[in-house]
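Recap for those who missed Tuesday's class. We walked through two folding examples back to back. For each one, the amino acid string is listed first and its predicted structure tokens come directly after. Nothing is annotated here on purpose, so try labeling regions yourself before you check the end of the notes.
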Amino acid sequence: MSSNIEVERICQFCGNAFVAKTTVTKFCSHRCSSLAYKQKKRESKVENSNYETLTQLNPANDPILKGREFLTPRTAALLLGIGRATMYRYLADNVVKCVRIGGKTFIRRQDIDALFNAAGPYEPKVEEQPEPITEFYTIKEIMEKFQCGETWAYRVIKEKNIPRVSRLGRTLYSKRHVDRSFKVKSEPVTFEYYTTEEAMAKYGLTRDSLYHIMKRNGVTKIKAGRHIKIAAAELDKIFEKPIIL
């Protein structure tokens, strides 16, 4: 049911006079009402942002902390500008004194102030400088020393994240890290090798099939001039069981 009364009022947003149908109407139009609502929300966001900034710059300005003699771990963490987990660690290490009553933890404000009153001179933390790397292996030297294939050597280098440098177009690997990551075999191992043609003839494979099996199973191979030599023991072992294609 519409109202029959007419009341002259002043719009609280634009300040213009208008005729209202009720005595509590604040705005002259839907547009002014919407704009006023948006302005109120914007001012609220600015006020909250200013309060948050003021609290971060000086937590003591927080009304929750003002005038409180006893603090909870959460409010104490806010006062110190640290996380709750760090505050609980300080309590566990007896850095900050506390009292537990009925499942609640309380901290005296004066105990926190006492930490700073008795504080000694600041001692900056000295960071340990990593030992410089001055000795390196080439990939060929790694293969010769540890009696391993190129594929396996690169796999260990990747898994152990061994530091590397590039010099004159060659990639060199940290000797200290390589020695720690690779295991030296107690007895030198002498490999017997097939040429590609010998392996193809022995097992009745095409060149593509042979190379696919070698790659799939990580068979050790070396390059001798223009020819590829394949570790005989590793290839023979593959054909003792079902072939992984």
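Example two. Treat it independently of the first, because the proteins are unrelated.
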Amino acid sequence: MMSEQPQNAQPAGGDVPPGYTPPPPPPGYTPPNAAPPPNYGTPPPPGYQPPPGYGYPLQPGMPGPMYLEPPNSAMAIVSLVAGIAGFVGFLFIGPLVAVIFGHLAMNEINNSQGRVGGKGMATAGLILGYVGLGLTVLGLIFFFVFIGVIGTAIQNIPTPTPTTSPF
């Protein structure tokens, strides 16, 4: 089998056939031995410093500036934990603490101008707190109604009267 070479390909020995012209370089390509491109504009004066606050210029391929999230409000964390604790075992205290600290956390977050985070945790704590308080109130109503029904039923049980025996 014979391998065919393209018409413009150079032979392996490096000899260039007569009449061969290499293809032009792609647009924007600078040959390796070419002079650097000219600087446009006026150069900065000696001792020039960039204005403060600009940092290092980004180069192609470098990651952009990183944006850090603000720290979470401690009151938002307490609100969320207390709201969860209200469902685990602290039936009245947990939801009450969750509601109080949830409102304090929301106030702190809204007044911080973005310096304090945790709005989602505060909202979740408020929701858990209000649901927990509602369930606690319903549980107390059910408990007292149950006690009342049982008390009424016990009062209505006929008591046996002692009978006198003829003996």
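Answers for example two:
The chain has three helices and no strands.
The helical segments are 74-88, 93-111, 119-155.
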